[in-house]
Amino acid sequence: xxxxxxxxxxxxxxxxxxxxxxxxxxxxxxxxxxxxxxxxxxxxxxxxxxxxxxxxxxxxxxxxxxxxxxxxxxxxxxxxxxxxxxxxxxxxxxxxxxxxxxxxxxxxxxxxxxxxxxxxxxxxxxxxxxxxxxxxxxxxxxxxxxxxxxxxxxxxxxxxxxxxxxxxxxxxxxxxxxxxxxxxxxxxxxxxxxxxxxxxxxxxxxxxxxxxxxxxxxxxxxxxxxxxxxxxxxxxxxxxxxxxxxxxxxxxxxxx
Length: 256
Known about the structure:
The chain has a single domain (2-250), classed as Stationary-phase Survival Protein Sure Homolog, Chain: A (3-Layer(aba) Sandwich). A hairpin with a 5-residue loop joins strand 3 and strand 4. Helix content is 25%, strand content 31%. The protein is globular, with a radius of gyration of 19 Å. It contains seven helices and eleven strands. The longest helix has 16 residues, at 141-156. It starts with a strand and ends in a 6-residue tail after the last helix. By secondary structure, it is an alpha/beta fold.
């Protein structure tokens, strides 16, 4: 079993090391991650410039590769032959903040797992529901245990084609995690505001600011079950088609 570990927070992120350590019992682990933070990058593929790759030794002593490309580039590079071996599983994370509801379209973490599925390889993204600033850093022990549980069951079973898993883990002590729930995407609520300022030459520039997103806490959703202390596991698919609406829209007056 050859496992690729990547992330969107950069090769030196503690969550990446935690996930790589969690994967060691399952097989050969290769790490290929961005050389800097790509959070909220979405599904990026670099085609307009060359990609550079260099060797890195992580703080836990594990060997890794770092690239100036995006998270999706990391997966594509590995699966196109950079690692010189077939990749059986791609795991992404552990992101220090949750990726819930509509976040999946923005998330470099989730879309790296999506890139794996595009290439026909099983993908899983892992995120910890941590606060933005935590003195002393986040505790990844619970999320490492959750990652082992999810991957262990995944290897014993089989996902349908074009399906990948988005896993969100509550930021609580391991013994306080209530269990695992298979969930659907919830409703994320964004509080973005446009902030206009002027540079020293009196030219306008803009920030997209505002408070962080919230969500509707509803049973059975990733947002609701995470808030209730469960590890949320959401099966996602590459097919974004609204199948139930095809016949309805087909009845519109399409004649020329």
